[in-house]
């Protein structure tokens, strides 16, 4: 049993801030702010019970001055609005991972960016996610989002609470047991004995290819010991062709160079870059014959003193989408602008 | 396609401050130029050109070598860098770690987008002591003899 959910600490916290107007009688015990990253799964047979819990989760976090997101279906959102009253303004009804993307790793990286900013001033963040409804995609996609968060959010002052419907067997979907170190039972969380580290989840549930794009506009090669000058020149040329503007063009150059760097250092050492200019969009795709296993790289920022691990993270920060996957003939890294 | 560059890295030029600004020296064949100014107990490493996979090791080695001479301060001046990748960030982080462990002050000069964008995206703009001009970076550092 996680002791951080006990009432005393929670109450003491709350008395430190300006008088709250009302105090719900059935307050759930709530996370200890010192606990770092938490990822909790909670299963509900009854949609009403799920809403009750979601309401208590978001209102309790909001009262602790946390930054709160709720990722719920439209019906639940309307109901939470109604129940929270004016307090609903404290809750962002959206995914910190932004709009839905085919790329689970892109959603994870966006969540990391958003949560990083939100918690930079010392606040804690809580994200309540209702699973099992569109547009979250197929279960494998949701599973990779959850496992990716586990890989990237470690150490961050954030709580992710995932709400699952319970099946007829009284159990949540299998990925709930793989990806959540804590399971809620009543008002308490318990360590989950079936939790799997993200690398194992990605090994069992690998990232699928990005959608096909048709014939490429152009292709160029790269290899070890070569300067990236030629790749830079290509990126600038395609950026101009799509009229990306100075800032996005600079991002494109940086992103593609970092993905090529990553391929030379960790992949086969040589490969190709394919380019697509699609109206005002540019897509670049780096391919090498190497294989990637485990969680995708660069989902979050490294510690400042870490010598490596910045290249792909930078590419993700400047691109709309960065999707890295291993197929039958090697590893692909696609970035979209 | 070019093959791996097996030739020994070009030497690092040491500039004499009394010479004043002259014609810019051309970049080395690997796209990078490193030169060193010694101002009292402060060492300034001037970096110009492109910092990427093929040449970043030279930057790391130069910074390490200068730190090992035991200055009071090291200034890494990236003012003339026009392309900067994560490999350059690695060089800065390794140098900062080394400087920290030796009690040496390290300042970085980053002026343009080419260097400031990667520093900003990775949070290093806040973690390292980054200045916009060399004059700002040198302020307060021991520049006199002895």
Structure write-up:
The complex is a heterodimer of chains A (337) and B (146). Chain A has 337 residues and is α/β, with parallel strands linked by helices. Helices cover 36% and strands 21% of the residues of chain A. Chain A has ten helices and twelve strands. Chain A has helices at 7-15, 47-63, 74-84, 104-119, 139-152, 174-179, 198-204, 229-241, 246-266, 311-318, and strands at 38-44, 67-71, 91-92, 125-130, 158-165, 182-185, 188-191, 218-222, 271-278, 281-288, 321-327, 330-336. In chain A, strands 3-2-4-5-1-6-7 form a seven-stranded mixed sheet. The radius of gyration of chain A is 22 Å and the shape is elongated. With 146 residues, chain B is of the alpha/beta class. Chain B has a six-stranded mixed sheet with strand order 1-2-3-4-5-6. Chain B is globular. The termini of chain B are far apart. The chains are: A alpha/beta (337), B alpha/beta (146).
Considering the chains and any ligands shown, give keywords for the structure.
heterodimer; A: 337 residues; alpha/beta; five-stranded antiparallel sheet; elongated; B: 146 residues; 27% strand; disordered N terminus
What percentage of residues of chain A falls in helices of 4 or more residues? 25-40%
Low-confidence stretches of chain B: 1-6, 16-20
Average predicted confidence as pLDDT of chain A: 88
Overall structural class of chain A, as computed from helix and strand content, comes to alpha/beta
Average of pLDDT of chain B: 87
The number of E-state strands of chain B comes to 6
For the termini of chain A, the CA-CA separation is 46 Å
Uncertain runs of chain A are 1-29
Largest sheet of chain B: 6 strands, mixed
Order of strands across the widest beta sheet of chain B? 1-2-3-4-5-6
Q: Tell me the strand order in the biggest sheet of chain A.
A: 3-2-4-5-1-6-7
């Amino acid at each position: 049993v996680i002791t951080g959910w006990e009432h005393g600490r929670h109450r003491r916290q709350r008395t430190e801030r300006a008088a709250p107007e009302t105090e719900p009688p059935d307050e759930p015990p709530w996370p200890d702010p010192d606990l770092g990253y938490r990822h909790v799964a909670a299963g509900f047979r009854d949609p009403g019970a799920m809403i009750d819990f979601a309401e208590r989760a978001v209102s309790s976090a909001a009262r602790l001055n946390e930054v709160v997101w709720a990722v719920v279906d439209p019906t639940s959102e309307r109901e939470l609005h109604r129940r929270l009253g004016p307090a609903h303004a404290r809750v962002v009804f959206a995914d910190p991972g932004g709009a839905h993307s085919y790329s689970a790793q892109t959603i994870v990286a966006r969540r990391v960016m958003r949560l990083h900013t939100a918690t930079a001033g010392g606040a804690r963040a809580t994200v309540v996610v209702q699973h099992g409804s569109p547009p979250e995609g197929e279960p494998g996609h949701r599973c990779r989002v959850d496992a990716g968060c586990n890989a990237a959010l470690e150490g961050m002052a954030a709580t992710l609470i995932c709400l699952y419907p319970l099946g007829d067997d009284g159990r949540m979907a299998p990925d709930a047991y793989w990806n959540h170190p804590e399971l809620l039972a009543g008002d308490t969380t318990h360590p989950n004995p079936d939790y799997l580290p993200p690398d194992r989840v990605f090994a069992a549930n690998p990232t699928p290819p990005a959608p096909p794009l048709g014939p490429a506009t152009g292709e160029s090669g790269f290899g070890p010991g070569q300067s990236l000058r030629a790749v830079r020149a290509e990126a600038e040329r395609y950026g101009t062709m799509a009229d990306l503007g100075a800032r996005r063009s600079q991002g494109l150059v940086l992103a593609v160079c970092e993905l090529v760097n990553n391929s030379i250092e960790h992949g086969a050492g040589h490969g190709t870059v394919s380019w697509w200019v699609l109206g005002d969009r540019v897509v670049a795709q780096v391919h090498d014959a190497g294989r990637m296993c485990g969680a995708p790289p660069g989902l979050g920022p490294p510690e400042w003193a870490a010598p490596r691990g910045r290249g792909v993270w930078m590419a993700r920060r400047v691109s709309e989408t960065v999707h890295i996957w291993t197929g039958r003939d090697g590893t692909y890294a696609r970035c979209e602008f | 396609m070019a093959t791996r560059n097996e030739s020994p890295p070009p030497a690092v030029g040491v500039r004499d401050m009394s010479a004043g600004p002259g014609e810019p020296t051309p970049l080395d064949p690997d796209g990078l130029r490193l030169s060193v100014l010694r101002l009292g107990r402060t060492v300034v490493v001037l970096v110009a050109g492109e910092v990427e996979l093929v040449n970043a090791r030279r930057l790391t080695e130069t910074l390490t070598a200068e730190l090992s001479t035991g200055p009071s301060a090291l200034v890494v001046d990236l003012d003339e860098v026009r392309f900067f990748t994560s490999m350059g960030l690695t060089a800065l982080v390794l140098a900062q770690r080394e400087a920290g462990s030796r009690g040496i002050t390290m300042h970085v000069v980053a002026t343009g987008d080419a260097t400031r964008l990667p520093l900003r995206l990775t949070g290093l703009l806040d973690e390292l002591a980054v200045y916009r001009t060399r004059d700002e970076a040198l302020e307060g550092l021991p520049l006199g003899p002895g």
